[in-house]
Amino acid sequence: MKRILLIFAVSCLFFSCNANVKNEESNNIAQNDNIVDTRVEKLKQSFEQNDYVTFFKLFPDTYDEFIDFYGFDDDTGKRPLYDFYETHINYFFKYEEKVNSEIFAVKVYEIAKRGVWDADGIGLFQSNLSELIISKPNIFLEILTKKPDKEATSFWHFVFNGSGKYDLQNKEKFEKIYNSINSLDKKQGRLLKDEFEIMYK
């Protein structure tokens, strides 16, 4: 009898602890959702008020955050800022005279590294990034030369990801970026060329 009571008491304790853990997890998820919702609203507001500095601070810091804000999923549908991706991303890249180039490049790098191409917002971000590398390669070279080769390669992978094998526009983009980078840094030129050839051989 004592043994049955002991098993019963242990079972009750286990289920009680389990319920507390689940409640805590639910509360944490709800809290995180509230933080994201607040940030999304403030991001929209700063864009509407043409407050670039605040907009820049609130803009996603990682690829995963970028997807959470601007992505689209076939199962779950639009993320909260999907309808604004075009105006927001183009605005984000108009950083000159508003934030320091090096600070801007670090934020862009953190989003791009280990990123994977997709349509819509990600494609537009990639397009803006490519144009910026061609016009201002040095701001990215300052970052890339301090990173391990594997991490730098993941950045170059994102830059060229998403095209078909025979996409002439992508090859043209590669030539422009390669010439721009290789003339300044042979190692990064080699890394991006090797990655491009692996992706599209």
Largest sheet: 2 strands, antiparallel
The N- and C-terminal alpha carbons lie at a distance of 73 Å
Total domain units: 2
The averaged pLDDT comes out at 87
Radius of gyration: 23 Å
- The H/E string reads HHHEEHHHHHHH
Structural class by SSE content: mainly alpha
| Mass-distribution shape | globular
Tally of DSSP β-strands: 2
Number of helices: 10
In the predicted model, the low-confidence regions spanning at least 5 consecutive residues are 26-32
Name the beta content range.
under 5%
**Strand line-up across the major sheet:** 1-2
Estimated helix fraction = over 70%
Keywords: Signal
Protein name: LIPOPROTEIN
Signal peptide: 1-19
Organism: Parabacteroides chartae
